[in-house]
Amino acid sequence: MSGRDFLIIDGDSLRCQDVVRASHRMTSVSLAPDAERAVVRANQVADELSRIRPVYGRTTGVGANRDAVVINSAAGDHDLRLLRSHAPGIGDQLDEVSVRAAMVVRLNQLAAAGSGIHPAFLHALEQALRTDAVPTVHDLGTIGTGDLTALAEIALTLTGHLPWASGHVEPIGLEPGDALAFMSSNAVTLARAVLVGEELRRLLDAAHLVTALSYCAMGGSAEAFAEQVHARRPHPGAVRSARTMRELLWHEGDLSPGRRIQDPFGLRAFCQVHGPALDSSEALTRVLEIEVNAAAENPLVDVAGGAVFHHGQFSTAYPALALDQLRAAVHHVAELSAARLADLVEPDFTGLTPFLTSGPPGSSGVMILEYIAHDALGMLRHSASPVTLGTSVISRGVEDHASFTPQAVRSARSTAANYRTVLSCELVAATRALRLAETAPRGRLLGEAFHGLLGKLPDLRADHQLGQEIEIAGGLLDDLIELMPSAE
């Protein structure tokens, strides 16, 4: 679907990686001609049907006002009232990357030609993405049944009723039925889920390299990652994780024994704990790639059958549950990282001084890293709590279920930030241990990664403030992924 410079929006084949690239302005978008023609026809069908039968949001109010018949002028005055009333502008302002990602997702969903919206909205979104015009969008007011507040703000910006945060696109007209057709989506939540899902995926990949460095510092045993072991219990994520560890640690095929008959769980059970997180990450990607290509607007305009269907496709139970599962899995992975950090400061495992000190007796070395890691782990534990155990009843009892997917996304963002901190603490300690032992990591790939770290992480062995090293290590986690073995 995407090339180096252009991303064709066709409503059918958008990938999570495409959303990420477009949100970071690494590609330009172009609406597929076939999709544009389908949108034009769907708009015509919606207009025709609204003249002969009630159509929610076009000839009626919304929510508990679903039975109220509205009179909508050609200027779309009812639609303008609807957008204004649903755009409170409350909460934190979303960053530009998230807003661009949301516009990409919404453009692609509209290109699936199920909303009945006027094609001018697609052209305006396409133009905004091409020229990097970004609306002001606020976070608060969505519970997983449609990003009504955020999308109302985007629609009001496209129609010239709200100012742009940056850039500018000529305002478009608002036709009858356009308001709900644009708002009836979870595009903002889905876009943010794509972005945080990608961050977590990268951190999970980088964790293999960090763990491999800890393995080398502690003289780990090869047996835990053996192909024979994982073939007997072949969960895909665990098998992939073990294969990655083998490629990192024994690129040349040398499987020499470790220092102990059995390592602590942080090494020995790494793949068994990491595997579910990898599988959960892939499951989230599969769910999101269905969602971002879905014509899920309520009501659905079916061009082929010349009909309109009222339904519950606005529910986002699938991504909510997938996000809950991923956050829980990452929490387990982060716990093992903290456990390896504890092992790295223990002389029985490294043969080095307590807390990896190199100063006079009583020096603290990297003692504080455990406190920082467990502070972050405590916050991660909180953010791992499932959001899908709650619901809400609103709009006079008419809307009596919510998935709280936006809250799951916010929790996932917290999870990613705190997991990065935990991993960074382990990376600082593992690098210091290898420096103190004057031990080169095993394997060509791991050796290259370690050589890169040596040039970027300061080698300060006397007691000092460790904050800068933790921050540097956090940034290096993304760089390490470029040296990862292929997942194929």
Automatic annotation (TrEMBL):
The keyword ATP-binding does not apply. One of its GO terms (molecular function) is lyase activity. It comes from Actinomycetospora endophytica. Keywords: Lyase. Pfam families: Lyase_aromatic. This is Aromatic amino acid lyase. The keyword Lipoprotein does not apply.
